[in-house]
């Protein structure tokens, strides 16, 4: 993957594997750390500061990591604070906040850091008092020796403890679940809430520096385009505009590099925006100026119907079984491009001083940002400081630091003065790293009872790999392992194929990534097969999943398994069945529904967690769809922070509702057609589900490995809604979004 290896280092096995495979955090760049001296500081007044090295974008990671540390430290939560780590993976371990793995990878290291700090405090107190360490207790910020009656606060022993040895990992005694004070509690709340509601937080768009300049950029409207000519005369006459700078476009593929264009630098953002409006630019659109997403849909459909795609899973003999089956069924599903569209658009501040660069930015990948800024400016990464602000949403967009590189380049152009680059909503929608467009073609061979005995799935979609390497026409293993090669249905003959598809715009991570089209297609198709067989959808889905069993995903052709050890993280169909039963029972599955109302169901395994959704819809005579009630059940293993699990599931339901009903990015003449939230539609209050009920399943076994939470709630939402639409109207939705299809 060349330049992309830094980000796409996913622990994939190679044909000639000489060393033992690494999984989880061990397989990530720079691995993990659990040294309490890195993550825990205690002031003389007893204030505990936990340094959090993952990016906070609403998922609550600053709270959850602090909870893990504070619990094992046995600290008083009211005296716990958090600090945000800068981008520095050699010190803090991997910092990529993506893949729903922050707690999955760091829950236990952070517990060990807290436990080690507690042990160091006990040892310091024992040495101070001249008593055996085994007789010293540490509880709720108090160190005590019962026999002598001596007590001290954590702050009293902090300096002495900091000079001690860090205990060996194997010597640490972690708490049992019945001893937890914070882990698993539902009433902690976000540690940043007071600062958020009083305006005391700093997001990327809030960053300030003395003497700061402000910049906006006119970027090529077509990927790979460049400035043919420009006239900045009128822009430079605008009050407040100080300079106009041409940024050369990078060679393609461009990874996370800026798109290029013409930057307007001014004394305030409004002046920069007015100056940009006054620019006269003629663009050379390059190779993708003819990209039309509707025409491209036809190309993808043709590819998905062809028989020359790469075979990525081949179990049994699906082609023969399809031909010999008593009945056959087929369907095709389409998902358009989607934009992450976080409420806070990309924004970054950079300044260069004494041969060093410092940036403040809302990034999900601070170490990647650090390295790319260093490369861009010709600096040693040690001379680049990336201060990570809070993120007003991310969803994968802020894993790509192109906007930070823009700020760094413009600071260099202004002799190191601080320059803040702000993206408008229009910039964000026109120049995103979009979720891929996709056509999913499915065929099933059915026995006399309507049960599938053969299954063929062809997926045609441009790959994320297209931003890293020239012309990769097929999906990468991690994209295929998102519900395609690791599909856990109990069908004897399964074949998955991946035809070629060219990318005509930047493709990037979007919350849940390729699970979205795969889940939409598979879960919709199962509902269609159930209807054809005259079967209840839930009963049919459970039957097709089959009995409770544990599946090694590598035996199905999935070499990724979300980077986790398949022996530790097999696919457990018993857990999948349980979330289906939980969500559907809670929704009153089988109840009589009013006219033009329906109940739909879908389930999906992703990011080593299990989620099912039962959605209720109402379809008006005008074709308008309302979603009054949604039940969503998740089994993500142990529940570290139940409040945040619920919040993530609620957000997934709202986001999935938008994907189902209204959200899409379309292209004409190479340009994204949506400008703002008047055309890139997302659910508002009146179109969001009125009730969202979250059901936390499992978690009884504290030794069970943790699953992901941030992303797995999203994939089953859309198919549950469209299945409910069919139950309400008898009309199938195979193309997203629903839009006005129900009125035609």
UniProtKB/TrEMBL annotation:
Residues 198-287 form the Aldehyde oxidase/xanthine dehydrogenase a/b hammerhead domain. This is Aldehyde dehydrogenase. InterPro entries: Ald_Oxase/Xan_DH_a/b, AldOxase/xan_DH_MoCoBD1, AldOxase/xan_DH_MoCoBD2, AldOxase/xan_DH_Mopterin-bd_sf, N-heterocyclic_Hydroxylase, OxRdtase_Mopterin-bd_su_IorB. It comes from the Bacteria.
């Amino acid at each position: 993957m060349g330049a992309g290896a830094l980000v796409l280092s996913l622990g994939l096995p190679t044909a000639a594997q000489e060393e033992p495979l690494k999984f989880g955090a061990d397989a990530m760049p720079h691995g993990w750390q659990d040294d309490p001296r890195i993550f825990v500081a205690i002031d003389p007044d007893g204030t505990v500061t936990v340094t959090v090295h993952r990016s906070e974008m609403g998922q609550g990671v600053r709270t959850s990591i602090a909870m893990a540390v504070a619990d094992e430290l046995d600290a008083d939560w009211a005296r716990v604070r958090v600090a945000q780590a800068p981008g520095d993976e050699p010190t803090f371990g991997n910092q990529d906040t993506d893949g729903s793995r922050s707690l999955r990878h760091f829950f236990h290291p952070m517990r060990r850091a807290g436990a080690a700090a507690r042990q160091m405090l006990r040892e310091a107190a024992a040495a101070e008092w001249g008593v055996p360490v085994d007789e010293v207790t540490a509880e709720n910020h108090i160190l005590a020796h019962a026999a002598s009656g001596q007590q001290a606060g954590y702050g009293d022993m902090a300096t002495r403890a900091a000079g001690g040895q860090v205990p060996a990992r194997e010597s640490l005694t972690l708490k049992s679940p019945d001893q937890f004070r914070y882990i698993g509690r539902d009433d902690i709340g976000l540690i940043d809430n007071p600062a958020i509601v009083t305006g005391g937080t700093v997001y990327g768009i809030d960053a300030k520096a003395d003497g700061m300049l402000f910049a906006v950029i006119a970027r090529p409207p077509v990927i790979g385009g460049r400035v043919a000519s420009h006239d900045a005369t009128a822009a430079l006459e605008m009050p407040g505009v100080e300079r106009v700078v041409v940024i050369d476009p990078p060679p393609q593929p461009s990874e996370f590099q800026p798109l290029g264009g013409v930057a307007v630098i001014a004394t305030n953002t409004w002046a920069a925006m007015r100056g940009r409006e006054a620019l006269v630019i003629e663009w050379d659109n390059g190779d993708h100026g003819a990209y039309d997403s509707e025409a491209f849909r036809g190309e993808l459909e043709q590819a998905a119907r062809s028989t020359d795609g790469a075979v990525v899973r081949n179990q049994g003999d699906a082609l023969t079984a399809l031909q010999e089956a008593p009945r056959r069924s087929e369907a095709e599903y389409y998902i358009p491009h989607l934009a992450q569209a976080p409420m806070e658009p990309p924004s970054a501040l950079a300044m260069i001083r004494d041969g060093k660069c410092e940036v403040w930015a809302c990034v999900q990948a601070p170490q990647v940002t650090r390295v790319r800024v260093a490369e861009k400016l010709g600096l040693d990464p040690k001379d680049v400081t990336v201060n990570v602000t809070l993120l007003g949403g991310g969803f994968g967009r802020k894993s790509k630091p192109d906007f930070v590189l823009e700020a760094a380049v413009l600071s260099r152009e202004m002799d190191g003065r601080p320059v803040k680059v702000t993206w408008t909503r229009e910039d964000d929608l026109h120049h995103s790293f979009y979720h891929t467009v996709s056509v999913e073609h499915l065929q099933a061979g059915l026995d006399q009872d309507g049960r599938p005995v053969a299954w063929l799935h062809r997926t045609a979609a441009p790959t994320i790999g297209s931003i890293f390497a020239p012309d990769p026409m097929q999906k990468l293993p991690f994209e295929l392992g998102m519900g395609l090669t690791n599909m856990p249905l109990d069908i004897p003959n399964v074949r998955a194929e991946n035809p070629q598809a060219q990318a005509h715009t930047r493709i990037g991570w979007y919350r849940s990534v390729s699970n979205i089209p795969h889940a939409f297609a598979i879960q919709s198709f199962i509902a269609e097969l159930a209807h054809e067989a005259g079967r209840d959808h839930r009963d049919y889905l459970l039957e097709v999943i089959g009995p409770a069993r544990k599946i090694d995903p590598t035996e199905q052709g999935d070499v990724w398994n979300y980077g986790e050890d398949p022996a530790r993280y097999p696919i457990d169909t018993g857990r999948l069945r349980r979330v289906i039963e939980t969500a559907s029972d809670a929704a009153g599955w089988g109840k009589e529904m009013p006219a033009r109302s329906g109940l739909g169901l879908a389930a999906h395994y992703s990011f080593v967690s299990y989620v099912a959704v039962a959605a209720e819809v109402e379809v008006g005579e005008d074709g308008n769809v309302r979603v009054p009630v949604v039940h969503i059940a998740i089994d993500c293993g142990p529940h570290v922070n139940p409040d945040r699990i619920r919040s993530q599931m609620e957000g997934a339901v709202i986001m999935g509702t938008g994907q189902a009903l209204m959200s899409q990015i379309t292209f004409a003449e190479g340009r994204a057609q949506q400008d703002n939230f008047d055309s890139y539609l997302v659910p508002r209050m009146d179109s969001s589900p009125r009730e969202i009920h979250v059901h936390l399943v499992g978690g009884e076994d504290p030794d069970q490995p943790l699953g992901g939470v941030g992303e797995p709630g999203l994939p089953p939402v859309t198919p549950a809604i469209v299945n409910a639409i069919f139950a309400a109207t008898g009309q199938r939705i195979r193309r997203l979004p629903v839009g006005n299809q129900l009125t035609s």
